[in-house]
Give the backbone structure.
Amino acid sequence: MTALTLSTAAAPGLRVDAIVVGVAKGTGPKSGDLVVAPGAEAVDKAYDGRLAGVLETLGASGGEGEVTKLPAPSGFKAPLVLAVGLGALPAKDGSFSGETLRRAAGAAARALAGTKKAAFALPIEDAADAGAVGEGALLGAYSFDAYKETAKTDGGKDAKNGKAPLVEATLLGGKPRDKAFKAAIERATAVSEELNRARDLVNTPPNDLNPEAFAAVAQAAAKEHGIKVQVLDEKALEKGGYGGILGVGAGSESAPRLVKLSYTSSKAKKHLAFVGKGITYDSGGISLKPAGHNETMKCDMSGAAAVFAAVVAASRLGLDVNVTGWLALAENMPSGSATRPGDVLRMYSGKTVEVLNTDAEGRLVLADALAKASEETPDAIVDVATLTGAMMLALGNRTFGVMANDDAFRTAVHEAAEEVGEAAWPMPLPEHLKKGMDSPTADIANMGERYGGGLVAGLFLKEFVGEGITWAHLDIAGPAFNEQGPFGYTPKGGTGSAVRTLVRLAEITAAGDLG
């Protein structure tokens, strides 16, 4: 992964391959003009104060994420200057938001693929800005090349696979000896590395990442970071009565798993439980998905990947909160042993569920995991899942829905997401939709009304949360897997959606600010 450092050195003397600067669209009297952002003063001076004019001649507008390259001025040891757009210049005395800096750094890092070292001279006013720029650079430089024949990891161009990711990012304008700046860089590194690990898992082909393989990855990481791990295999699941997980995995030759990851702190006063949907491949089962809807279904374990990454990040950051992660892992396949529409499953909680559609399988594995997590009576449970196409129809491809059984907690989760730059939106759980899941055969059906399907799924999950336990549900079906082109620090493919929200929620809880 890209290395991240702080430096107080002047840009002209740095032995790097590129200097990254920010440019913005002017406002007020300078409306329409290109403006060089703070942090790039030394670079602008070397162009005799005409850097903005040169960039405008090259077609730069300062639009968010826009990248323009030009030769470095005389006297610079770096051969290249890369200007990245920051969007509109903030109002007088205003600052660029952390998300703006994060996206700009990400776009620049991606544009510098094939480069070994780059210095980022973007606006950094405090440690939070440094963390945002560092996080953006690390996330933007991400590349998944494990299956490419001769991929390089040390920078430079590869004849077969194109350009390797940026090797080292140095942030200018920071304070390397300042505790706050050091902590910001350490946090950015830990969170970004674990988020990128989640991306790797999402991008791994399902023939190499079945439930057993995913569990093995979790076990290895737990051992490395001092996290207690427990894996329930198919025999243990059968003995424990986990009918939902077993029912979903019944049609596959790859048996299901339930993985428990426990990070504990001696100073913790609160306990959070994170539950992740981990369908390592979703064919739809007997209710088979049509062509055009199953090609990316390796991503249906994105929720479990996010939970896994968040627990490891909490451990690496040493947060003063106990965090338990539950990974409900199964492969949903059609076969002679698969669960059929019309079958009734007895869940871990004891409730029975009539399966009307085997492609509504995520809620079944989550139901078992939620019931199990509730037995430990955590202060709050958050589940994460690529659960419904209905949520994508409601919110699009970049925003996840937040539902909860407590309005204040839903607001807290939403605000945590917004704080770290993840687009989220609070959604209701209308009680009248519950009636659509009435079953003449079982306690509840796994399907309800067609309209509001994302809300129906949330209401189903709510039935399996322990009484009196605060709970939230994140439906990340839209942003978990980016099928379009990369943008900002977001790559094509697995995105690591919800990792940063979960980590921030753990930090807020550790600080005693969650309530």
Notes: The chain has a mean pLDDT of 95.
